[in-house]
Amino acid sequence: MARWEDVLDELVRTRRRALVGYAYLLTGNVTEAEDLVQEALFRTFRRGRAATDFTLAESYVRRAVLTGFVDGTRRRRRWEGVRHLLAPPGPPARVEPAVDAHVDVVEALAVLAPRERACVVLRYYCDLTVRDVADRLSLSEGTVKRYLSDANHKLAARLGPLRAADDDLTVTPSGTPAPGAQGPSTDLSTTVQRGAR
Amino acid sequence: MNRPTSRGPFDLDDALRAIADQVVPARDDDDSADRVRSGVRHARRRRAALAGAAAVLVVVAVGAGASAVLGDDPRPVLPAPAPSPDPTPTPTPTSRAAFPAPVTTDALLCRAPAPAATGTDLLATLTIDVPEVSVESLRRVDVAAHLTVDDAARVEVLDPLADAGYVITQDGVVVSSTMAYDDAVASPVDLAEGAVVDIGGPVGSFALCDPERVASHSPSLLPGDYELAVVVPWVVSSYALERDGAWGAPVTAPDGDTPLHDGWLVSPAVPLTIEPDPGAQTPAAPEAPDAVPGAFPGPTTTFPAAPSYEDLQCGMPAPAPTGDELLARLEVPASGGVATGGETTLPARLVGLPTARTETVDFRWLRAYVVVRDGVIVSSTVPATDSYDRAVLEPGATLPLDHVVTTAESCEWGTSSGAILPPGRYTLQVVHPWMLASYSLQQEDGSWGPENVTPDGATVYSGWLVSAPVPWTIS
Going from the N-terminus, what domains does chain B have, and what CATH number goes with each? Predict the structure, then answer.
């Protein structure tokens, strides 16, 4: 068995569920999440570079999941064309969330725009810094802060005040701290928005 | 639902982790791995097979005594060099030094300069099959085009049909584009020498100036004269060239991964005329000469200067209420009061003008207001934010926008400073971002004018709706 196949087997065996969970946070749909992961695995292993190192491969898959989600519309169109080749028919598509205890959160996430949602997942689930989120999504830090701020307002409108480990989301017109801006906030309902408009 | 459904800080980090942890894939891991393994093997075999097939051609060519002695060094082959007068056979150039600079996705996006048609040096050309195209506004038209591979080239490319599209230009600038950044899977395909691939597809009179694909709807192009070019991705992973009846060695990417050329084929442009929609200009009821109340004398209107975000911050004068000139208004039917430190719900609504249909950037989730005392804003929850959806407000439609207002002083770019407004008499004004993407006006004869948009897809108007002030007392 080729080296890449060993890595693939280990990755699927030990990390697939976590990857699907990650993808589910992005998509809000188990079937789409599984498809997203399946496609990401294919994209990672059809090339040689990342396929022989477990850690690197998982990193590539996660990036491919994120890219696939953000590029959703066209990705879905293409994926539908090859899905029969890579995704088993399996059980009927399940559209309901697999996590009944957090239906409210899943529903709240559903109102976010794709990039807002991606920012939230990367920031609060993956614990990436704003800088790293910006890097992953090829956005500026200011844009990420704006996405996060917008997302937080939307989420707070449905879930109530939020508390999450967070750094300063303040974005000022000149890039300097806003008047009265303080350090890390623990209440996202009070984060400052100062975007492009 | 826009009001909080729970009280107390909600721990988002923990909630997200709990959700992810509880997800159970519906499909079996082994099956998943088997499918991926099978797909990857197929893809790798396909890549290897192409190189192998080309190598066989080389062997045959050499065995037949052809003059092609194939080296590894890339040498230019197009345009074809003149036959050598030297009677001694010399190695025939069978690979090219380099492809020209690729046409990038960036170069095909809205507001980019009109792209030039690509030439034969990419081993294939793209041509629209009709000399000109005409389409009625808001309609689509099928436009036939074809890709032709050079007679002396065989290529392996990512399927160009998977991402075929077009760009529409006007005055030398792209005003409509189906292009988008994409890193999705496209299957490699082998195209033989002289192959002709049909690239037909519908062209809509819609401005898809939405490279991030975040808008659910795009404004339409205005009737007028444009130019249309068809584009397809041209990602060459391998090719072989024929010279004097012999096929050269296959040329593949040095690392087997980076394509030799990653760009687009662009067809020569043809004129595209978008005709006005005759239905939009036909009087709906010619037998009813009475003017429609509130109707507009023309298809467009002039918008007033827009208040800025900064105009709605603390310390600024109370904003002037906006009226029907923005084609919608914010209404707060009741005044109110609240005990210090408390909060109350203030009913508000967004009301569309009966003679206007608007499409705006969707801020229906946003609630913002300013509190004014002595003519000066003393609290403002107006955030600087953005949204990427669109919302249509039908003529005369009403959208409830109840606001929860508090006595918290918000003077830090829309958020609470922690201070509480002291008891007293204030006025309160609800504000709402109002970014018009398009609008259509009812004419005095009852008909509806065309959908007004900007040619570049930018908003027609960007400002704020501001309600009339209502008394608000903090007791």
Answer: 105-275 (2.60.40.2360), 310-474 (2.60.40)
DSSP secondary structure letter of residue B215: -
For the segment(s) A100-197, the CATH number from 1.10.10.10, 3.40.50.300, 3.40.250.10, 3.40.50.10540 is: 1.10.10.10
Contacts of residue B75, defined as CB under 8 A and 6 or more positions apart, other chains included, come to: B93, B94, B95, B96, B97
pLDDT of A17 reads: 93
Interchain CB distance below 8 Å, B40 and A43: no
Q: Supply the DSSP symbol for A122.
A: I
Extents of the domains making up chain A: 1-98, 100-197
Residue with tokens 């040689």: A48
Query: How many angstroms separate the CA of residue B1 from the nearest CA in chain A?
Result: 7
B275 bridge partner residues: B136
- A128–B contact, CB cutoff 8 A: no
The pLDDT-based confidence of B257 (bands split at 50, 70, 90) is low
C-alpha span between B410 and A128 (Å, rounded):
29
Any residues with CB less than 8 A from the CB of A89 and at least 6 apart, and which? none
Helix, strand or coil, per DSSP, at residue B351: strand
Q: Is the pLDDT of residue B218 over 60?
A: no
pLDDT in tens, B143-192: 888 999 998 888 888 888 777 788 888 888 887 777 654 444 567 788 88
pTM of the model: 0.37
In chain B, whose CA is at the least distance from the CA of A107?
B1
Closest-CA distance, B404 to chain A, in angstroms, reads 11
How many other CB atoms sit within 10 Å of the CB of residue B300?
A: 13
Q: Chain A residue closest to B408 (CA)?
A: A190
**Contacting residues of B for A163, CB less than 8 Å apart:** 9-12
Q: What is the pLDDT of residues A140-160, one digit of tens each?
A: 778 888 889 888 888 888 888
Q: Looking at the complex, does the CB of residue A60 fall below 8 Å from at least one CB of chain B? A: no
User: CA nearest B212 in A: which residue?
Assistant: A71
Mutate to test the interface with A, among B16, B28, B462 (most CBs of A within 10 A): B16
